[in-house]
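Notes from the 1:1 (GR / supervisor)

We went over the backlog. Supervisor wanted to see one worked example end to end before approving the batch request, so GR pasted a single chain during the call. The sequence is below; no edits were made to it. Supervisor asked that the structure be written out right there so they could see what the output format looks like.
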Amino acid sequence: MRRVTGHHNLRLKELRQAFRHSELTSDGHCAIEGVMLVEEALRSGQRLGTVFFRESERPLAEKLLPQINSHVETLLLPNSLFDSVVPSDSPQGVAALVKLRPHPPEQIFERATAGPIVVAAGLQDPGNLGTVLRSAEAFGAAGVFLTEGTVSLYNSKVLRGSAGSIFRLPAMQIASGELVPRLRSNDVRLLATSSHKGTPLPEVAWKLPLAIFIGNEGAGLPRDLMHQMDETVMIPHAAALESLNAGVAGSIVLYEFARNRK
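Structure output shown during the call:
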């Protein structure tokens, strides 16, 4: 490990910018933090660019270093410098720049004969999107498309909430105006979730290929997008409840798909 004490290290600047703006670096790396997420990246065979350790976490560094390729740059930072860069309120002492494996849209369509396509259409809460990514992998989704208005895939809370699914599940940003025609050309049926009306969840026919649209937490799907749906599905719940959390609702629908397919 190489000790870095100044704020001007190039890789440290890239880590700070990637976290701050929830975006990829100029050479295509995303920023992650936390023991579990770094271990998941290693377990999933992701290519690490640089790994950053907090100086007080030398035992953690000694545990992880044998798992990290010897060609990967590893930097040791003073506690205050590390804490100033990572967004977590309780840093676990490790962060990394990771080159995510690219997934072209065609890969999701190729997988759509085995599982549904998930479309996050305006999800703004990073915890909800992280939950949707995690459930999409758990219940056999083909992949996840993110349309305009959805929180960045590279938001630190999204990445943490995905619990490593981001490293294995194809997920990418695409405009709805481009996505819907591509879904139609691939004979994909469009299904939207709703709180108040539609086909009750137990009565849905889970025929593939299928795209499940999960809308904004408060407003749902945009009206023009809702008009293009083939079916709306409603999750029955207590009448006193206005609606379900978007991440929970998406997870229930994905579970019901998996249960019925089995």
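Supervisor's comment: The radius of gyration is 20 Å.
Batch request approved.
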